[in-house]
Design a protein that fits this description.
binds zinc ion, mainly alpha, 5 helices, about 0% strand
C-alpha cells in the first residue's frame, strides 16, 4: 500500500481521503463499518480533516490514510483498481461477476487474409483483397 509508484492506476490520495471521510461521516454506525471505524479511529477522522482541508497532510498523515484505505479494501476483499467514490467501492463487489463472454463473437468483421474491415455483415468476399470470408 505504501509503494505508490508500483500502482500507477490506483486510487488517488484525494479520493482515498474523500472515501474514508464518507465512511466516517455517513457509515460510522453501519453494521458493516462499525468495527472498521472503531479500529481506524485515527485514520478515518484524519482523512475527513484532510478531505475538508481542515489540515494539510504530512508524511505520517499520508501513511495513516494509505494504511486505513488498504485495510478497507482488504476487509472488502478488493484490489485497488482506482476508485473515486465509496459508491464505486461498494458497487465493485456486485459488479465483479458481471463480465459477459460476448467478446467471443466470430472474427468475421475483419478479413482473415488482409485484415480489412468488411463493409457489411453479408459480404462473401473481402472487398479489399478478394479472399473468401471466413
Ligand atoms: Zn482481405
Amino acid at each position: 500500500m505504501l509503494f505508490k509508484n508500483k500502482k500507477p492506476a490506483g486510487t488517488s490520495f484525494e479520493a482515498k481521503c474523500s472515501i474514508l471521510a464518507d465512511i466516517w461521516l455517513n457509515h460510522r454506525t453501519d453494521d458493516d463499518f462499525e468495527a472498521f471505524c472503531e479500529y481506524n479511529d485515527i485514520g478515518l477522522p484524519l482523512a475527513y480533516m484532510l478531505d475538508s482541508e481542515i489540515v494539510a497532510t504530512t508524511e505520517t498523515a499520508t501513511k495513516f490514510v494509505e494504511e486505513t484505505f488498504g485495510l478497507l479494501l482488504e476487509g472488502l476483499d478488493l484490489k485497488d483498481t482506482g476508485f473515486e467514490s465509496l459508491e464505486e467501492i461498494l458497487g465493485a463487489d456486485a459488479e465483479e461477476d458481471d463480465f459477459d463472454d460476448s467478446s467471443a463473437t466470430p472474427s468475421s468483421k475483419f478479413c482473415g487474409n488482409c485484415g480489412a474491415a468488411h463493409e457489411s455483415e453479408t459480404v462473401k468476399f473481402c472487398a479489399s483483397c478478394g479472399a473468401a470470408r471466413i
